[in-house]
């Protein structure tokens, strides 16, 4: 091979020299990047350490008292008296030497496998959880150790939004300090005695004795695994309410024990086959007074969690509620005894909600009769929306929107005549299967005629009706013509759609206070463990014009005076209200042996300037009917409670607003086209008559011999095929109630060429028709 010439060598030499600086330059850049990365990591590490210690400097001090104590919440009534302590008295502590090894194994296996290897914080667990959360689309996995969970339960809120970086740093710091001070077995013992176990129970020993009637050391492996798995989500894994979820969680615990070689395959197979309710005892309550306000407490808990995100069982709150204990006790006595109301049997159910008309505060509530002693936070029928509220919807769905948006008068004439739902062959029927011809809006509403109600609904329009209802906290997913006389709805979405006693009491309260809607409010103030406080009050939203509220109220006074609600009469009390009754379809009636009128639901909602009270009655089995003999119980319950709560408040009448004119006993919106051109106006209620006294009359009592009335009814076939409804005016012993309308014959609406006579000044007792 020929040697390269000098010129060839010279030509290659410069090329080698040119590449050397580039390689050195690349090495320098790489080195600089590495130094920068290391420097950044060092700065980040130092910053992280600095931030960590900055956060932990404010961490609370370790306190054995807090480690040992429950963190249940206390509930106080409107006068500041404690009436419930959620779990503080339902706790049995267990000593470390009494805890069975199987329970230790179960807890450690499912909650913290490396519990005996870490010092309170487990970096391996944290990294593993982070990797799992990045690579898996399923539920998030936490990195907290058992020690950290104990710290959280003892010193911090369990609210998800409170899990800040500061909080996590303090939690980790306290966990490390805790394990320096206490042994692993002591930490486990604190945890076992601290955790919430559903149904107002704290600590696993308490749960063992309450659920199985045994001490922990005498439970089966399956029962032990059930208790070990509950603290992660105690209410969700409650074996009484959610047995399937409880079994799934129990079996998960057993599987982790098998994987950790704490039980044999034979033990695992036997335990997983054990029924979840094997050995489970009926819950016993140690506070008989608790069930008086059980439904109210349930709503308090729900409202606290929805408004604050706090957990009443683990965050140690002092909750000041709006409960009027005296009113609640009275309501409980009325509903559960025979002293005030004669009930047909033990199965008839009653739900009721009492609301402060001005503020929306719920002062009393009950969700059922004859509730078993072992029921804890049971079904609350007072907030359920799965029953039909019948004609009580007419003021809020039909006539309220008409007065609000069309400014018609109470004397507007309407034809009560044969009528079909537009676009259908379904006839609208009245309670007596007859028609009264031309009548006023006033009479149509106080006598609860269905044909006029549907006509008014269609005239005002579904859109306006829905808007008016929404202003009162009531919605339907799709409002139908049948909702003119019924609250039936195929879609409920929990309690979002439809009507309950809670919703109805709040809606009628807007009539009572002149047009302002207030959300039903159970809580007044909360004091947190850190000493801070949070108050809760309604700002109120305008739901309607004052003239609408007054005109509806004026008519609903007549409902009690001479309409369908005479059993609700309370002597000398200014009040207004509306009856409501649903009924069965023809197919359902054919399946129920009966004589006379029967109904699945009977309601009454009434109010004063101070209180709004809604009552529902019916059977849980809808096909068990309310008969004529018990069709007035809703009114009677209302009468007894409203009489009681009205004793210590002024008996105020409603003041007619400036934008309302009274002429010939009918009401007009000032400036509207309906106002007569030459009216004889009055701003004074016709109740005020110097020659009239009501002291001579006596209220109907539960023992009075009153002929039962045929219940009103507003049958609605499943949407969109509405059917007839019916309603009958009861005929009790006449007992007048103060009213701003007279009982004179209903006049025709004055024309522009007529001069109406002065308003009537006499008050006629209830009609016997």
TrEMBL record:
Penicillin-binding protein transpeptidase domain residues: 351-642
Bias-annotated ranges (Polar residues): 1-18
Biased amino acid composition, Low complexity: 680-730, 738-754
Domain Glycosyl transferase family: 80-257
Signal peptide residues on this chain, from the entry's feature table: none
Record's keyword terms, sorted: Carboxypeptidase, Glycosyltransferase, Hydrolase, Membrane, Multifunctional enzyme, Protease, Transferase, Transmembrane, Transmembrane helix
SUPFAM superfamilies: beta-lactamase/transpeptidase-like, Lysozyme-like
Catalysed reaction equations from the record: [GlcNAc-(1->4)-Mur2Ac(oyl-L-Ala-gamma-D-Glu-L-Lys-D-Ala-D-Ala)](n)-di-trans,octa-cis-undecaprenyl diphosphate + beta-D-GlcNAc-(1->4)-Mur2Ac(oyl-L-Ala-gamma-D-Glu-L-Lys-D-Ala-D-Ala)-di-trans,octa-cis-undecaprenyl diphosphate = [GlcNAc-(1->4)-Mur2Ac(oyl-L-Ala-gamma-D-Glu-L-Lys-D-Ala-D-Ala)](n+1)-di-trans,octa-cis-undecaprenyl diphosphate + di-trans,octa-cis-undecaprenyl diphosphate + H(+); Preferential cleavage: (Ac)2-L-Lys-D-Ala-|-D-Ala. Also transpeptidation of peptidyl-alanyl moieties that are N-acyl substituents of D-alanine
Region annotation Disordered: where it falls in the sequence: 1-24, 671-769
Xref: Pfam families: Transgly, Transpeptidase
TM regions (residue ranges): 33-56
InterPro entries: Beta-lactam/transpept-like, Glyco_trans_51, Glycosyltr_51/Transpeptidase, Lysozyme-like_dom_sf, PBP_transglycosylase, PCN-bd_Tpept
Protein name (record): PBP1A family penicillin-binding protein
Species of the source: Enterococcus viikkiensis
